[in-house]
Every structure is written in C-alpha cells, then in structure tokens.
Fold this sequence. Notes:
Methylthiotransferase
Amino acid sequence: MTSSSDRSTAVSVDGTKTYEIRTYGCQMNVHDSERLSGLLEEAGYVQAPKGSDGDADVVVFNTCAVRENADNKLYGNLGRLAPRKTTRPGMQIAVGGCLAQKDRDTIVEKAPWVDVVFGTHNIGKLPVLLERARVQEEAQIEIAESLEAFPSTLPTRRESAYAAWVSISVGCNNTCTFCIVPALRGKEEDRRPGDILAEIEALVAEGVSEITLLGQNVNAYGSDLGDREAFSKLLRACGRIEGLERVRFTSPHPRDFTDDVIAAMAETPNVMPQLHMPMQSGSDSILRAMRRSYRQERFLGIIEKVRAAIPHAAISTDIIVGFPGETEEDFEQTMHAVREARFANAFTFQYSKRPGTPAADMENQIPKEVVQERYMRLVALQEEISWEENKKQVGRTLEVMVAEGEGRKDGATDRLSGRAPDNRLVHFTKPDEDVRPGDVVTVEITYAAPHHLLAEGAVGAVRRTRAGDAWEKRTTAAAAKPAGVLLGLPKIGVPEPLPAAEVPACGTHA
C-alpha cells in the first residue's frame, strides 16, 4: 500500500493479557496489523494502554524489508525490550512481516529472547505460536512458503468507522530489480470478485462510506482468474453498491493500465478522480535496468488519456533517484517527465541497496552525495509543480469528507480537516453545527499550499452521514468500553499519503 511509517496500536484497557503491535512499512503491513489485532482479540487479548511503549504481555513487530536499515531498527527495538522481558514474567515478543519472511532463523540468533517468528503467508498462526512458545518454553519459528489462507478470511480489528482497506489480491508477478517484495509476498493470488464485493457490502452496512482497493498491482487483478478486464469490471461493480460514496485503489502498474480501466474510472460516479501510479524513473534506459516494462512515452500517454477522460484527476507517483548507472542525462529525463506529467504530488526516494535484489549487485552504484544533490533538485521541482497545481483549486467548491487526525493544528486554529474527492487534504473553518468524521461538508477553496488546501470562509453545507453515525457509535462505545469491539471486517482510517523517504517503493508506494 506509501513511507515507511511507524505505527504503534494501543488503546486504554482494563483486562487480562495485553498486546501491542508496532507496524512498519506499507499499506499491506498496516492492513495485516488490523488482522493481527483481530486474531489476538479473538484469542482473549486486549490492547495495551496508549503510550505503553512495550509494557504489554505480548509485543508484536510487523516488519518491513523495504525500509533502509530495517533490520538495524528492528534489532535496536528488540534490544531495548530485552531487559524489560527479564523483569516481566510471561512477557512474549513476536516478529512477523517481510523482514521475518526474509531473515527467518537470523532473528532468534541475534535476539534469542524473541518467542515467535512468523512470515507474511501465515499471520493467522500467531495466537497458536504464542501459546506453543509458552508451553514448550522455546522460540517458535514458522515461515510458510506460500499463502495458507487469503488474509481477508481472518478476523480483523478495524480502527475507523468510515473508510476501509479491502484487499483484492496478494503478492506480485513483477520482477523489478530494486524490489524484494515479490520474493517475500509471493506470486499474485487474486481474490474472487464475489468475496470482495460481499466484504464491501458488509462494510457499507456497518456505515463505511469509502473503501480503497488494495494490492501490490491492482490493475493486474484478473490474471489469476483468466479475465484481463476483471479490474475494470470490479470498479463498475463497486459503483452499483448503494451507500458506497467513494472508491479508491492503490497501486496500479503502467504495464497493465488499460483503456477499459480509464473508462471505468470516468464512468463510475463513486470512483474518485485520483490516480497513484508509480513511474520510478523517466529514463528509458533506467526503466529497462529496473525491469519496468514500459517507457517514458507509454507512461505519459496513460497520463494524457486519464486527464482527457477525467479533467480534474489528481495524479501522484513514486520516483527513485540514483538507481545504479543513472547518468545526469538519465536524471534529466526524469525531470522532463515530471514537468510533462505535472503530478499533484510525488513520493520521492533516494536509491539504497536492498540485499537480495538484483540491483544491489549492479555496477555503477551512484555516490551518496550525487544522489542527494539530484534528490534535492527533484523535490524542489515537484514542490513548485504541486503548489501550482493546488493553486488551480482556489475558487472551486468541493465536497470534503471530514477525517479524524488529519490536521495536526486543527485544535489551535479552530479548524477541521478532510479529504476532497481527489484526495487532496483540505483544512476548513469549523462550522457552528456539530460535524463528525465521516460527515461531508461543502466548502470553497480560498488558499493553496504545496501540500494542502484551505477553505477560510463559512462552510456552505453539512451533510450528516451514516458514516458519521458509525463513527459516533464507535466513539461512544469506546468511551464505555476502552478495549474496543472486534467487528470482524477489515477497516482503517482514511488512507493517507505517505511521506517522502530514503527508500525505494514497492507496489503500494511503501
């Protein structure tokens, strides 16, 4: 699914055994952590109080192998927990996710106080492995080589009442030379359309009004089912679900981006005018070295078609600077493509070696200082373009879905924040009437910054929604019962753009 972001899930609770999950990486990992929470709560655990910082009966690290120095960060955190574990009888530590799939036995060798190591294909085994480690009093390492059950069949503890991730596939069939994800997540496996739609309908029945279809390469969906137009058909089917207001997806691959998908986006009212499509480089020679099966002309041609069909679409991308062998001419081709594409925003990454990837062994690795200098030039250009594109929004009237936790300064400025249909962040004046996350407000944009829009005037209209009702019900229940409620379907807050970082991105702009 963007950054690398670190998230620690915890809520206040009075109860028996507690757990804490620390998540690193992309949307896939965030969604997997929802499932891990659901599994642990079904097994009788409750989340540790917020800010517990490792003071829980079970601490789970859901790791990422794409991050630079991901292993150093993991072992540093594990080291800090070692003395606490010696003074807390019965405490258990588990490590899962991509780094666990990759390093396997190494984790217990370096950190023998770890109780459980599990991979990306068998997250459903976590409660069993914890119990087995407790009974046998020895570390349990179980790494499945292929998917045991589609993750969406697992119980899931959702963190939001109004916007949800919905997985449509797992794994990836691409062989990008900078990416280790296919080796850790496996080949693409598609979920049956009926199962996807049934999950979405159940979410909507609970009050969800926005879903994001999630996969390493969403528009390759259907290759496992023998239907090349399966993804566009899925988008159109989402348009027929009553009560579903917003549909997004991440991330597509330019190779598989076909005209039928563009038509479905344009002709399905609840599919939002937003597209995140990783470019990675604008140089044909670098794209060839990356094993990206398209070239600059093909990529820009897709952008042109999308804008012709959806004039107000906001298009974002991922770009890697300093890939092995990148010359100044190659970099200038990337700068040219950025100028031509005029992305609303770009997630920019400085290339760094990833052990186990072909690119790590390539000749002509670029010196760090050269990569840094090019990176700063790219960021400056994209900041300028983002600001210019956002200025075009001034004077427009937009429907904004109110979000929770999007505006860090909202309390000080007496504003609220939310997302426009194209996913731009909008801060707006707090109206006199009560507005809840999930509700929709109509505002006029008065100011633009490179990374957000501002509506300083009075809110034009407030539409209270079933999603807002669901948020209010969830909040009231949480106040009465701090442990929260296991609802059994995947859900997370409004998917947000992830910050730029010094790592290459996988299919979900991690």
